[in-house]
Design goal:
- The complex is a heterodimer of chains A (252) and B (359).
- In chain A, 37% of the residues lie in helices and 18% in strands.
- In chain A, a hairpin with a 5-residue loop joins strand 5 and strand 6.
- The longest helix of chain A is centred in the last third of the chain and has 19 residues.
- Chain A is globular, with a radius of gyration of 17 Å.
- The relative contact order of chain A is 0.15.
- With 359 residues, chain B is α/β, with parallel strands linked by helices.
- Chain B folds into 2 domains: 193 residues, Thiamin diphosphate (ThDP)-binding fold, Pyr/PP domains (Rossmann fold, 3-Layer(aba) Sandwich); 114 residues, Rossmann fold, CATH 3.40.50.920.
- Chain B has a 7-stranded mixed sheet, with helices on both faces.
- Chain B is globular and about 70 Å long.
- The chains are: A alpha/beta (252), B alpha/beta (359).
- The interface between A and B is large, with 36 and 40 residues.
- Strand 2 of chain A pairs parallel with strand 9 of chain B.
Chain lengths: 252, 359
């Protein structure tokens, strides 16, 4: 019988701990497939961040370093500057990247740090049980915004790709989703572009994946997907916010 | 024998880092460590190395974590408030068993404190530079020559025991000039061999080995306990093998001064002045602050009449001195803090008082 699908060599055999309907599983697979297809697994060093995806160091079948909360871009900088020919990526959630690690993120981008950043934006803190994230939507009910996110108290959600696209060191800022087949395919292409940029020494590439967290949203996987489509995609429109290979670098 | 050159402490230490094979420095501006960063920003590009000014102390220590994880010799330098910011990263580095070098050119505290020399980070360096059960290997230089010599020593010990090392200097040693002999450049550091000696490094498998993970997270308590206990077994070996101290005129001393770093220099002058007046004074100068040189102090407990602990703080190391002496002899304290260096006359007065009281 012809083999039509195999698990990528970019993932180990350790079973994922992720919840049903969580986007991490798909995104892990896409990153691993791209690394395998581009023959980069032997050169790759991944940086796991604090949050649900911290255990990605067990899942990706390449060298992995676990960073303190928010510091993955700094840790990745140290790795990349020591071994510039290695392929260095971070895998970060929204709390990690856009709250506690904002300074590290902005400065890695503005330095044009030649790394690839996979950013999971699911509008909530997953590991700690569903607190407000920097990307939680106005009105969104979380454990720490039980009456809905009141922007007068908690401020507004951060649009990361839009913000980073203003920085000269950013090579790619693209927002994707994995809520349907087409978007999964587009997401994989964007991730591939992020690693191609690194090989071509173009600078900082960030692929933001608008993601679902059914458990902490209190929804079934199907309803979570629907909630994502109806609420998140209008605040976080999918698209390319900066791509130095497609334009002269101006903000779109 | 290499020629002696006159150098400022911070710059001598920075040059020693180059000679020790460090090619990855990550820093953030702060007084009074300034010359280390300034010097390395000039020197690193000339030797194919990296000087990177980070966006914060927090980022700088995490860049060190990343660089150290690949197996290269990485370092950072800062002064007291900046070291507090690094404490998160230091804990992760210790929990990940990574070697690296951290320089603290101490100034007065707490808070923003002052910019004059101090030794008030003794507790931080030896007891609690971050959360969790761990230690740093801590060296306290008292001369510019030691600022130079301790850099390769600190890297060697950090790598031998897979732990962060610190050189605990201060604003006086950092800013003063003395003649020093730099390491002989005839024996260049072998970077490739050094990296190859670290089979745990995360610098790409190249398809030749299984993946490495640099990690400090262990969700299962029994697994975490086992790793921490193993680390402490290593610490016991370090305590046994790596204690360093200088004992000066202690054989017949009635009054034994215990002081490290800058305050030990002043104490030595005071001990000499006391001897000139016929008082049997001596000095024990801890060189390793962790492991604390218990043996050197234990050796003089039978003969000493009294110990005088001298520090540029409100009395921190004295707790470790008292633990060794354990009530067998009195341990007195004299210190100045806030950025003030005690004078030889002040310390001599204390020695004379204790000598008189002891008779």
């Amino acid at each position: 019988m012809a083999v039509v699908f195999e698990k990528t060599k970019g993932l180990t055999d350790v079973p994922f701990h992720y919840c049903p309907g969580c986007s991490h599983g798909i995104v892990h697979r896409l990153v691993a497939e791209v690394l395998e297809e581009m023959n980069l697994l032997g050169d790759a060093v991944g940086v796991a961040s604090v949050g649900c995806s911290v255990f990605s160091y067990n899942y990706f079948d390449c060298d992995m370093v676990q960073a303190p909360h928010g510091r993955a871009p700094a840790v990745a900088t140290g790795i990349k500057r020591s071994f510039p020919d290695d392929i260095v990526f971070t895998y970060q959630g929204d709390g990690d990247l856009a709250a506690i690690g904002t300074a590290e993120t902005v400065h890695a981008a503005t330095r044009g740090e030649n790394i690839t950043v996979i950013f999971i934006n699911n509008a909530i803190y997953g590991m700690t049980g569903g607190q407000m994230a920097p990307t939680s939507l106005p009105g969104q009910v979380t454990q720490t915004t039980p009456y809905g996110r009141d922007v007068k108290i908690a401020g507004y959600p951060v649009r990361v790709c839009e913000m980073l696209s203003t920085l000269s060191g950013t090579a790619l800022a693209q927002r994707v989703a994995v809520n349907n087949v087409k978007n999964v395919r587009d997401a994989k292409k964007a991730i591939r572009k992020g690693f191609e940029n690194q090989i071509n020494k173009r600078g900082y590439s960030i692929i933001e994946v608008v993601s679902a967290c059914p458990t902490n949203w209190g929804l079934s996987p199907l309803d979570a997907n629907k909630w994502l489509e109806e609420n998140m995609l209008s605040y976080y429109p999918l698209g390319v916010y900066k791509d130095v290979t497609a334009d002269s670098g101006e903000v779109k | 024998m290499a020629e002696k050159v006159l150098m400022k402490g911070n710059e001598a230490l920075a040059e020693a880092a180059i000679q020790a094979g460090c090619r990855h420095f990550f820093g953030y501006p702060i007084t009074p460590q300034t010359e280390i960063s300034a010097y390395l920003s000039k020197r690193m590009p000339k030797v194919g190395g990296l000087f990177l000014q980070a966006e914060s102390e927090v980022a700088a220590i995490n860049m060190v974590l990343g660089a150290a994880s690949t197996g290269v010799r990485a370092m950072t330098s800062s002064s007291s408030p900046g070291i507090s910011l690094k404490s998160e990263g230091v804990s992760y580095i210790a929990g990940s068993d990574l070697p690296c070098l951290i320089i603290n050119v101490q100034r007065g505290g707490p808070g923003l404190g002052g910019i004059q020399p101090s030794q008030s980070d003794y507790w931080q360096a030896t007891k609690a530079l971050g959360h969790g059960d761990f230690q740093l290997f801590v060296l306290a230089p008292s001369t510019i020559q030691e600022m130079v010599d301790f850099v390769p020593l600190a890297f060697d010990k950090a790598e031998q025991y897979r732990m962060p090392a610190m050189i605990l200097s201060d604003g006086m040693l950092g800013q003063m000039m003395e003649p020093v002999t730099l390491p002989d450049p005839e024996k260049p550091f072998d970077r490739e061999a050094n990296i190859a000696s670290k089979p745990w490094a995360t610098n790409g498998t190249k398809g030749k080995r299984k993946k490495n993970i640099v990690n400090s997270l262990y969700i299962q308590p029994d697994e975490l306990e086992k790793l921490v206990v193993e680390r402490f077994e290593r610490y016991e070996i370090i305590k046994k093998n790596e204690q360093r101290a200088e004992s000066y005129l202690t054989e017949d001393a009635d009054v034994v001064v215990v002081a490290f770093g800058a305050s030990s220099r002043v104490s030595r002058s005071a001990v000499n002045a006391a001897r000139a007046e016929g008082i049997k004074a001596g000095l024990i100068r801890p060189i390793t602050l962790w492991p604390f040189p218990e043996n050197a102090i234990e050796a003089v407990v039978p003969t000493a009449k009294v110990f005088l602990d001298v520090e540029m703080n409100m009395g921190q190391m004295i707790e470790d001195v008292k633990l060794v002496v354990n009530g067998r002899k009195p341990v007195e304290f004299f210190g100045r803090t806030g950025g003030i260096i005690p004078t030889p006359a002040e310390i001599l007065a204390q020695i004379k008082r204790l000598a008189k009281e002891g008779k």
